[in-house]
Amino acid sequence: MRIAVGSDHRGVTLKTAVISLLEAKGHEVKDFGTGSTEPTDYPDVAGEVALAVAGGKFDYGILICGTGIGMCIAANKVRGIRAAHCHDTFTARRARQHNNANVLCLGGEQDAERMPDIVTTFLDTEFEGGRHQRRLDKIHSLEQA
Q1: What is the pTM of this model?
Q2: Per annotation, catalytic residue among 65, 72, 86, 105
Q3: Which of 87-109 are b and which e, b meaning 16 or more Cβ less than 10 Å from the residue's Cβ?
């Protein structure tokens, strides 16, 4: 899989661990920054990753800020993005099964211990389709408004 990864300054430590995990699993990874603990505006990074995923250059994106919430809000402004803030394997699984989420958002200050399981679950879970596709079609129609 091709995975775009990005963080702000509060997520840079977890981002480094995420990249190591992904590369160890054989995924192609691009780091969209930041590489510093100097203050960074998360919407800038979220926008770059979301546009790369929406444009088909990457299969998935992973975004990390202090809580994961800001990145999730910003990424979801990009048409075609279904970003999910997941804090355990249950939410990661459902985000993929029911919502076909294509961007995983994590909290850099809270998810470090659970990160490997959350990321692995998110990437290994398939979209179920069926009744869920009807709902995604309705979400897509909202993007057109």
Answers
A1: 0.96
A2: 65
A3: bebebbbbbbebbbbbbbbbbbe
